[in-house]
């Protein structure tokens, strides 16, 4: 095709620049040559148009290929970006759900704690009590706490010396838990734990809540009678509750199930009332009773009282009953 174009251009140059030497051509010959030149010129123009059209077609094909390649790469990167964005959103959603679940659990825990203080129906529920772990306090107590601890232990010793039912819980030395400060010194409350041991012929069994080892609000203390036949044979001072009929036990003090329990479980309300009565009765036998006046304070779960001296200065004390858990230094308290 290029050779045809070259030939046509050469021919046109020849006819458009006629020779200046020699004889001039006749008119018919000149007309034919002019017609042939015009035909060649038309053919040349057609060939040029075809070449240009082919170049355009090939150019558009190359452009289309380039655009297709770019489009394919664009779709790939868009898909990659969507996948990355999806995983980022999933991770953010998981973190948000985890934080919300944690806040929800904390809120439920706080509501349970609030219910333990505000729900009056819990007072009458004999098989339930709030339970906590209480580590044994360090013995280098502050001056006032040490004085309060000694005073309370003198009071508990006086309680043990009272004529009483032999099959009631045995009070152990008090442990200072802490103090709750108020606006004035008069409003400060000193809190002490009074551990209990089972009486003869009885055993304590802690039944933890539904959360396994973690102590929960529905934990309870079950009482169980034990055989005292060996002591009965050797000492003869008791009758076995398990192996004697009821009519033979009528002259013996009642067992714990008949005094401080509701069914087989310790009643926190009855236990608190029992300790309150003991403290009121035993205070007169405490040496400090000559200088301090005791006033019992109303409470359905604790033994609370206030001591006032001659200068009208007073301090408040709160005694909590509890049992030791296994062989550890932790206690389950009745609240």
TrEMBL record:
Coiled coil regions, renumbered to chain: 30-57
Q: Which domain of life is it from?
A: Eukaryota
Query: Signal peptide: which range, if any?
Result: 1-22
Q: Which UniProt keywords apply?
A: Coiled coil, Signal
The Gene Ontology CC terms held by the record are: membrane
In Swiss-Prot or TrEMBL terms, this protein is called Inositol 1,4,5-trisphosphate receptor-interacting protein-like 1
- Give the source species: Anas platyrhynchos platyrhynchos
């Amino acid at each position: 095709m290029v050779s045809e174009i070259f030939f046509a251009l050469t021919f046109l140059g020849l006819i458009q620049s006629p020779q200046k030497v020699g004889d001039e051509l006749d008119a018919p010959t000149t007309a034919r040559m002019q017609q042939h030149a015009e035909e060649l010129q038309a053919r040349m123009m057609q060939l040029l148009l075809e070449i240009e059209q082919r170049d355009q077609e090939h150019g558009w094909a190359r452009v289309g290929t380039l655009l297709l390649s770019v489009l394919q790469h664009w779709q790939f990167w868009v898909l990659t970006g969507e996948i990355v964005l999806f995983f980022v959103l999933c991770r953010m959603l998981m973190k948000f759900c985890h934080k919300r679940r944690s806040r929800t659990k904390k809120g439920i825990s706080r509501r349970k704690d609030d219910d333990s203080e505000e729900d009056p129906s819990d007072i009458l529920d004999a098989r339930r009590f709030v339970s906590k772990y209480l580590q044994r306090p360090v013995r280098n107590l502050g001056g006032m706490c040490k004085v309060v601890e000694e005073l309370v232990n003198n009071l508990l010793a006086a309680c043990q010396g009272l004529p009483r039912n032999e099959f009631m819980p045995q009070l152990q030395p008090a442990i200072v838990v802490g103090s709750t400060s108020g606006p004035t010194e008069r409003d400060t409350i000193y809190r002490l734990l009074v551990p209990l041991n089972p009486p003869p012929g009885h055993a304590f069994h802690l039944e933890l809540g539904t959360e396994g080892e973690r102590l929960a609000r529905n934990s309870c203390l079950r009482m169980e009678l034990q055989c005292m036949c060996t002591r009965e044979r050797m000492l003869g001072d008791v009758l076995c509750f398990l192996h004697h009929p009821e009519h033979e036990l009528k002259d013996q003090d009642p067992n714990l199930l008949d005094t401080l329990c509701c069914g087989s479980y310790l009643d926190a309300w009855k236990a608190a009332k029992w300790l309150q009565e003991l403290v009121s009765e035993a205070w007169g036998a405490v040496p400090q009773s000559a200088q301090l006046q005791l006033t019992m304070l109303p409470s359905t779960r604790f033994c609370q009282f206030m001591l006032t001296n001659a200068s009208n200065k007073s301090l408040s004390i709160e005694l909590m009953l509890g049992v030791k858990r296994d062989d550890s230094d932790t206690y389950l308290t009745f609240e």
